[in-house]
Amino acid sequence: MRILVPLNNMEHIDDYIASGAGEFYIGFQDEEWTSKFGEYADINRMSGFKENANPFSLEDVVDIIEIVKNKGMSIYVTFNSSIYSEDQLNQIKKYFIVLKEGGVDGVIVSCIELVEIAVKLELPVVVSTIAGVYNTQIASFYRDRGANRIIIPRDMSVDEIETIVKEVPDVEYEVFMMRNGCIFSDANCLGLHRNESCSICGSLNNATSQIQMKEEGKKQKIEWNDLLYTKSFHEYACGLCSLYRFVKMNITACKIVGRTDEWKNICSDIRYVKHNIEIAKNCKSQEEFLERMQLPEENELLCKDGLSCYYPEMRF
Fold this sequence. Notes:
The chain has 316 residues and is of the alpha/beta class.
């Protein structure tokens, strides 16, 4: 199982690799795109955070691809917005051609239209969580149309994932593992990820309190519960307890999220995941793995209430 890591800081790429990163994903911003389609047209899911999430231009990304490949690593470029117009699809096709010539390992896409464009260009395709592969029929649909890898939505259980992996083979699978959880379904969220709070989660997190209750104590409990969940899951989610099962399923890659996160925190997560993958390989049961696994330093706080779990049913 390879560890997929966001690459938004070239200064620390060697730190990521030394920590155990096996693959990278990256996005870019383009002035031509913005001038054509406007400020609120996204190239990828994190376009709204601008240079904080996508600090590079397309030309930068082409140069970065060469650097990453020379280091013996793989790199994928994201095109996973919730929706694209026909003109935008045509523009993305031009990007695909440039990226293929640059030697990119694949593109992460959110819709069947982009799958079809990439397949015609013989460009490897990773189907994003935005596509909503929630069952074997959807997985078969994308596999049969040429997808090389499918990213499983972060709100599925390990048993549900295992069913898809077993019944729809001959395609790679990727799962979420660390950082930046969300209580909503990526595939069914039509909001934009922007500081203007254009998404449901962003609006809830940034809105002033609108709770009106006769009993003040209950209001406090509701607000405290919301704060705990936001800090525990949205800002730091963890799936380490599930690694034994994923190793046994032969999951191709596990994903560390966080294109806007501090590089030191990402390196720490990479090391935890790498170490626990090695432990899982040498265990004979889930119970043995839970006894031997390395927990995060903050595990007493993170694990006690279970609010940080990507896969809460696996919690020890």
